Amino acid sequence: MTRPPRRARAVDVAAHAGVSVATVSFVVNGKAEGRVSPATRQRVLDAIAALGYVTDASARALATGRRRQVALLAHDMTNPFTAQVAAGAAAGIAEATGGTGHLLLLLGSDESGPDVEPVGAATVDGVLINYPGTLPAGRPDLPVVHLDDPAAGGHQVSMDVEVGARELARHLAGLGHRRVLHLGTPRPWSTFAQRRDAFTAELLALAPGAVVLDDRCDIDLAAGVQLAADHAQRWLADGVTAVVAATDLQAIGVLAGLAAAGVPVPGRLSVAAFDDIPFAAVATPPLTTVALPARELGRRGAVLLAGVIAGDRSEPGEPVVLPARLVVRDSTGPAC
Amino acid sequence: MTRPPRRARAVDVAAHAGVSVATVSFVVNGKAEGRVSPATRQRVLDAIAALGYVTDASARALATGRRRQVALLAHDMTNPFTAQVAAGAAAGIAEATGGTGHLLLLLGSDESGPDVEPVGAATVDGVLINYPGTLPAGRPDLPVVHLDDPAAGGHQVSMDVEVGARELARHLAGLGHRRVLHLGTPRPWSTFAQRRDAFTAELLALAPGAVVLDDRCDIDLAAGVQLAADHAQRWLADGVTAVVAATDLQAIGVLAGLAAAGVPVPGRLSVAAFDDIPFAAVATPPLTTVALPARELGRRGAVLLAGVIAGDRSEPGEPVVLPARLVVRDSTGPAC
DNA sequence: CTGTTAGCGCGTTCAA
DNA sequence: TTGAACGCGCTAACAG
Fold first, then answer.
1. Would you say B329 and B287 are in contact if contact means Cβ atoms under 8 Å apart?
2. Residue B69 CA to C9 C1' — how many Å?
3. Which tens digits make up the pLDDT trace of B13-28?
4. pTM, whole model, 2 decimals?
């Protein structure tokens, strides 16, 4: 058993400061108040600095039962939206624990979906879930916060996707669009169903004769490009004047595919989507999209999770719903 | 001290199977061969399944000295290139440890830079570094692998950025460009310096009278847009016919800024860069860029790190250098 | 082939 | 105000 060379341990600090390990523990954990004299405390602090002592996370976890780690489960962190959620979650964790404390652990950085084994192994105190999957059994009461999954029970923070979808429907209806293609995804996420349903309902309400057709492709650039290249002519033949994608990534791909196919946007076809990732603003043409606060989603989720872990609120309160709003840019125009 | 309700422990499994904890430990860790009879082994396996037992990661880490976690230090995983590196690293870790084992821990998901505290706290067995920063003291011999940092010592995997840069120089020189603007970054990364120097050297070698001007901006879309909007006219006035950015992100921003300013690309100005993130292919016009294998960089780095941790090779061998190649698309054309 | 037992480093109760 | 001692769950010598 090769073991890394010894770092300073609490015993060493204790010896160096001429106190017991208990005292060291107290000052390290901020429980010195009324238990350790200021002078002693300082001696311990000096010893810690001198020895470069850092509490061993594993030992502490074993002793306290808290890992100081939380996981963010997502299916693909290569997706800009997910990356923003993660960045927000990291910020939220730092914020909620005072910087020093829990840290963020990303699983499933790939399309293959998260490896949830660590969750079962009690590597984490809680989980932020941003994909519809199942947790490993064996940890039934692990604190969990669902992100952007309105259908999930329990603690959750989501976004007012419906409001945004309706705003988009109004925008398009006002532009005269009556036949729009909705580009969904093969993934059964409740948020996507919600986007589609709210959009459709509002469009039909505003324009009774309107028709919403359906198509779908994976959430990635290449899939969008391919789909548009293959289906653009059919869409046009079907009388479609606008396509609404579930995500910006798909829409940006579609934009590229349409450009390659020589279909003018928004001249011949309007394109809109959801998310407002940074690339949406620099697409050609700049993409009209329902801006979803990804970063804030992650941040709020992390703060909520930290609260649940700390025991602030064990009962799932009102789900947190973040605002979404339509950002009109140049990819949408009057129906032709 | 509130403690989560008890999950099954090794003792429970042992009791359930009518064996000792040692036996349980052996079968759990795959060391049953020649020590535990197949029948006993099966009994233990059944007990594990029945009880839903999962080894506690903290306890195991404390006992073995290995955390089964590695960290990837990066400054912003919101950057598509970084995200790919991370995805590759996750795959590499899984590959090197047989899937069940080390997991990836991302730090510094933000622009603020990584929070290296966990490294000091011995939360990880090794570190993958993708930014020029310092590790916390106190862990002098922690296994480290540098990614895309040719100037770093020790174990490292990088990319043949120089070859790519020279190829780009040849491409541009062949197109008649003699005055090109190099768009660098404020960050002192050795890889960026290398990109610039190799490009410049080759261009001057091919076209003795050529001039490479300098400008710089942060590695993000908005910075590129802003810079182009502000400086495009000056660049043109200076006789610049091509701009080479250190990263695709900057270039894509520049493309958008140029479009807004009404400067035709590649008609009036050619634009090229490094990385080949997925968005480069769908930019308008599609971006000519030096493709850098981000995913493979992460994967190889992880595999190498796993090897170092396992003790396969403690001496930094030949640095791994991955190939880079120029991908010519439509953003570059003849100098005007 | 299987069981016993001593740590791993830290947190915390209890006694001093 | 401080120190001694036990337990967290697991691994791995060492006995048997």
1. yes
2. 19
3. 888 888 888 888 888 8
4. 0.93
